[in-house]
Structure to design on (806 residues):
């Protein structure tokens, strides 16, 4: 039965037209109580009044999380153009009674946890142990699930379910629109005036849809609507005369007509489980408010809606001030919106060094207005603006339009919450560090170039590394360009709202970022499954400058290294330790205690590598090949003569060993040649032996791959190596050549394109000199027997004159 004291406003989440119409309707109604579809847990926590705080800047979200398990969290995002935000703002500023009436998250999280426990027990074939629970329990659902008005249709669902998921789709189709989103924008978001009639029409429309399209309601939605009805009844009992109910349009019909008796709702809500939750505000971003992020009640264009909200407000202010308007110019709220949007597009493109002149802005505005007129649209919408931008600014290309979509249509705005917002000490410490280091969070990705010789930059680096250790990946290191060696560090920074939940989770480890990182690193060290994970952790704690954690991790690493027998684990551990030693001087970190661990690792690797490489198949050899390269790079980086000699002696053993997989044997020879232990003649001799007819072609091809992989310069500049390989290839039989060709193609594919091109040009010139002539000449790079000495000496007097040599 309808109640004259209750006024229901069915809105669409995050719509500027809905928000504007709702605000004006509330101002006209002047209710003494406002009920909003939202979590009552926030009322209990007392955080709602912070919405009007001067430091609160939307977008922001109410974060509700389980007190005993912060990872179980739910967000309620708001933008300035969200109708719920405007309703709350209206009630708080006019000191009108305000309450949330949705089903509390304390119940919904408990129900989700209970259902998960039941599912786990059922999977094990055991009863859940909750004998008193009803059989028709509400299943776990998406706690931030969409209002049906915001959800896209599912083509493979029955028609009644399509109506349930997209109630506007059929109405838009009947009205001649192919998209319910576009129909809603034209009818509601760009509407002017008649706000009361608007909400009455929405209520009538949704009532008809729910009556004429029968379907089975979701159990969770039934409980939510029962709780909202109970909230309305409670407000009536408290004596409020004008009650404004702000809810999703889908729920409006069942809230506008309340049954006189609430016994059914009371019975449905009786006995629901409950858990303790905490509530706070967190900054949000427009990218997370979009449907592309997976947010069920999101919108496709938050940045565009923000633009609409701003320009409409400005137009209203100018009209109130009596600003003149021309009779042939559209109303300011439509014309100004188009002009300002195209101006923003031009500024964005010019900032990216793309052409966008004032004349282009004028032409784009005219085209958008013309398209809107042809399509009988009241004002140019986003499709018209995008088509105009594509034609005028982008010259038919959709590449610049992607930039416009990311930066303007979706937007990169990050909100802010007041310092008075309830937060765990760890969050407060991070905020203080951000202010001290002048390192503000931003939703847009930006690059941060740090010079670690500067104290402030060094502290920034430590903070970012400590956050990364805690799983807050605010920044990722990137390769610097034109930097300063090891003193140079480049970060790509981008703040995500989910990091707030991660900080709450990590708060159990300490009240400051440093304390939490130390405690968390110690716990990870105790639980580390193998040696490489410990050395990786050691690298992280050294970079984060946590000497207390370094000592504990080193103790665990020494104990693990003493027991480790797998050479591959030892080889995987060394590169990270070498990295730690490299950073020691830059970060002023005492790394002497790491030295004796590296001594033991190098010794054990050199002793254990030869027997560990026996009888390897192709997969095992490929894996060991990568580890050998990493160890070689680590030892080269350490620049320790004792390490270098021991490692090269081990490689010599591998190179001389019969039966070793060709991939490893070839790489051992190559590494020794690069280190100067083998000259070009010796390398060519070993290549010739590996490619002799006595060896299997597959093993010879693997040897070549190990020897040459990654660089073709050796072939281009090594005459002897080129000749040996040429002789081997030309001497293969046709069937054998076909067999080894895939292996050779794989090897040559690792060379850079310029190297492959030079090899092709060299091969086109025909056969190289006979190998005997190459060897008589003394090897690659020396003067051969066919060198014309007399012609060379003839140019010497001229060279002496040019160079000023007596």
């Amino acid at each position: 039965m309808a109640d004259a004291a209750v006024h229901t406003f069915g809105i669409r989440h995050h719509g500027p037209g809905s928000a504007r119409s709702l605000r004006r309707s509330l101002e006209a109604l002047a209710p003494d109580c406002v009920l909003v579809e939202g979590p009552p847990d926030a009322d209990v926590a007392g955080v709602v009044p912070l919405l009007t705080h001067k430091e609160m800047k939307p977008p922001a979200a109410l974060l509700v999380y389980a007190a005993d398990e912060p990872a179980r969290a739910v967000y309620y995002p708001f933008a300035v153009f969200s109708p719920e935000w405007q309703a709350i703002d209206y009630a708080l500023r006019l000191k009108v009674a305000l309450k949330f009436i949705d089903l509390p998250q304390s119940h919904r999280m408990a129900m989700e946890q209970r259902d998960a426990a039941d599912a786990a027990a059922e999977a094990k074939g055991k009863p859940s142990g909750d004998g008193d629970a009803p059989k028709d329990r509400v299943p776990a659902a998406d706690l931030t699930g969409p209002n049906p008005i915001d959800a896209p249709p599912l083509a493979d669902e029955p028609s009644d379910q399509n109506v349930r998921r997209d109630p506007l789709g059929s109405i838009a189709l009947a009205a001649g629109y192919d998209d319910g989103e576009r129909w809603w924008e034209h009818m509601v978001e760009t509407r002017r005036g008649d706000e009361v009639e608007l909400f009455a029409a929405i209520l009538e429309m949704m009532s008809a849809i729910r009556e004429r399209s029968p379907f089975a309601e979701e159990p969770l939605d039934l409980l939510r609507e029962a709780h909202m009805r109970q909230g309305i009844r409670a407000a009536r009992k408290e004596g409020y005369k004008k009650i404004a109910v702000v809810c999703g349009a889908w729920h409006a019909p069942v809230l506008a007509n309340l049954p006189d008796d609430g016994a059914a709702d009371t019975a449905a809500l009786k006995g629901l489980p409950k858990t303790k939750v905490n509530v706070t505000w967190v900054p949000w971003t427009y990218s997370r408010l979009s449907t592309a992020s997976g947010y069920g009640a999101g919108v496709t264009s938050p940045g565009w809606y923000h633009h609409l909200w701003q320009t409409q407000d400005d137009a209203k202010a100018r009209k109130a001030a009596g600003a003149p308007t021309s009779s042939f110019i559209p109303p300011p709220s439509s014309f100004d919106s188009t002009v300002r949007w195209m101006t923003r597009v031009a500024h964005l493109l010019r900032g990216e060094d793309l052409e966008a002149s004032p004349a282009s802005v004028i032409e784009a505005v005219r085209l958008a207005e013309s398209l809107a007129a042809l399509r009988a649209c009241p004002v140019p919408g986003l499709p018209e603006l995008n088509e105009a931008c594509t034609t005028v600014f982008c010259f038919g290309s959709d590449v610049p339009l992607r930039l416009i979509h990311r930066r303007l249509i979706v937007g990169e705005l990050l909100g802010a919450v007041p310092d008075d917002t309830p937060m765990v000490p760890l969050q407060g410490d991070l905020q203080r560090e951000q202010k001290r280091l002048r390192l503000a969070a931003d939703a847009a990705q930006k690059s941060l170039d740090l010079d670690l010789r500067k104290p402030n930059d060094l502290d920034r680096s430590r903070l970012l590394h400590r956050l990364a250790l805690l799983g807050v990946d605010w920044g990722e290191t990137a390769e610097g360009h034109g930097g300063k060696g090891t003193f140079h560090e480049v970060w790509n920074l981008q703040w995500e709202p989910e990091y707030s939940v991660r900080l709450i989770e990590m708060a159990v480890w300490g009240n400051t970022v440093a304390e939490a990182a130390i405690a968390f690193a110690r716990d990870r060290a105790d639980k580390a499954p193998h040696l490489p994970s410990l050395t990786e952790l050691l690298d992280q704690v050294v970079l984060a400058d946590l000497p207390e954690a370094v000592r504990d991790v080193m103790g665990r690493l020494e104990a693990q290294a003493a027991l480790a027998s797998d050479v591959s684990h030892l080889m995987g551990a060394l590169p990270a330790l070498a990295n730690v030693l490299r950073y020691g001087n830059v970060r002023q970190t005492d790394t002497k205690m790491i030295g004796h661990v590296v001594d033991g690792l190098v010794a054990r690797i050199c002793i254990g590598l030869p027997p560990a490489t026996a009888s390897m198949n192709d997969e095992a050899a490929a894996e060991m090949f990568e580890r050998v390269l990493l160890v070689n790079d680590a030892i080269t980086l350490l620049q320790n003569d004792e390490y270098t000699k021991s490692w090269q002696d081990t490689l010599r053993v591998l190179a001389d060993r019969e039966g070793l997989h060709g991939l490893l044997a070839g790489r051992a020879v190559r590494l020794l040649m690069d280190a100067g232990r083998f000259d070009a003649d010796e390398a060519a001799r070993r290549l010739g032996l590996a490619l002799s007819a006595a060896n299997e072609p597959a093993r010879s091809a693997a040897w070549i791959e190990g020897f040459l992989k990654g660089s073709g310069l050796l072939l281009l500049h090594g005459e002897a190596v080129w000749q040996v390989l040429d002789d081997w290839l030309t001497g293969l039989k046709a069937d054998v050549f076909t067999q080894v060709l895939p292996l050779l193609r794989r090897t040559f594919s690792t060379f850079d394109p310029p190297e492959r091109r030079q090899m092709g040009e060299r091969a086109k010139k025909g056969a190289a000199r006979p190998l005997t002539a190459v060897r008589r000449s003394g090897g690659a790079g020396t003067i051969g027997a066919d060198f014309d000495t007399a012609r060379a000496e003839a140019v010497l007097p001229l060279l002496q004159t040019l160079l000023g040599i007596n």
Remarks:
- Residues 425-509 form one domain.
- The longest helix spans residues 592-612.
- The two ends are 116 Å apart (CA to CA).
